[in-house]
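ok so for the tutorial part 2 we go from a plain amino acid sequence to predicted structure tokens. step 1 is just haveing the sequence, like this:
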Amino acid sequence: MMCYLCPLDQLYGRRRLALLAVGVGVLLLLFSAGFEHSWKHVCAPANSSDVTQSFRGVYTDRGAYDGFDIRHYIQTAAVVVGTATFLISATLWGEVWDEHFLRLRLVVVINMAKPAQGTYTCTLREDMLEKAKKELNEDPKTRLLEIKALRERVEKVPGLRSRTEDTFLLRFLRARKFDQERAYKQLIQYYQTRKENPDVFENLTPKRVQFLLEAGVATVLQDRAPDGSRVIVFRPGKWDPDKCDMATVIGNNYLTLSKLIEEEETQVCGVTMLIDLKEVGWHQAKHISPFTAKKFTTIIQEAFPVRFKGLHYLNEPTFFDVVFAIVKQFMKEKILRRIHIHGDKMESLHQFLPADILPVDYGGKLPPLSSKQWMEKLVSCEAHFADENKFGFLDMTIPANPKTGQDATESLGGTFRRLNVD
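step 2 — the prediction. this is what the tokens look like for a chain of 422 residues:
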């Protein structure tokens, strides 16, 4: 028998031949179970999900894919089915077999698949869906598949108890423009940061920082900015360092961001910060060291799934340049380009945030700024934030390598970063 296999061995190589044998065996097994019917019949089992049905259009109508590289569909289907371990890489499939075989193989794979299910229901308006598609690479047809792929990786991380519901995972996908690798790494860092900074996150709930909420250190405007972003007003001059440290202030701001990011429109449009430095003195500024500056910027920039659309500074004190020089070195270039320093010139601020959405405190047309409503909203979510504290890394002696669990996608071709389905 070996003599008959030698020509094939020389032609394809042992590895390819072995994988071919596995693929053929799987095909024969599936055909014996009833897949020998026509493609159209195979492509339309009862109770199929909309997502799976959207794939089937590729095979029943050649014009549906219009020259699109069918190997991407095989990659996506493999993630859904969990068959990545025996699928040959997309490149190899394209080199060895023709398109007709690929189409037939993909029909089989999809019919093996369980529909991508979840509890998520999109609340975005049509204009927001279009914005998400244009700016974040979001596709409603494959959204659940993206979530499922990310969930499968996260569930394999040793020592991590992560939230895995659709709405939670979707925040990271949107924050990283549906790049699977970047979304995964940010989620891991999200939990690493919580574990590594107990002074900020241990038992962090609204009631723990209620005195800061009452003082109005951070609050949120009722109306959105023209670009759709939520506007947070941060007033560090309301912070009394004798009552709490900087870590508590960071936790206070973190809770506000956490609540805002639950809103799908905010996930798409982001957040704008209005930083009012009125009443800030050396009493507060002396607590801003390179250590605290790095901690704050790392938590907000790297580990939290939010898009910062602008940072607007008002009423800067005379020593602002000294303090800002400390913070600036830890900011990303992209964030630095979105910083605007207005001084006490409200007309300059109004070029970005119109008077119609601002309180009279900032030359606006609305009543004076009050933090009461936002404070009450956060405090009403005490149980939710207490539950959030139950998740995280259980044992940080186990390294949380971002590559852990990568096998869910890496065997599909080595550079699988996003589910490329049009």
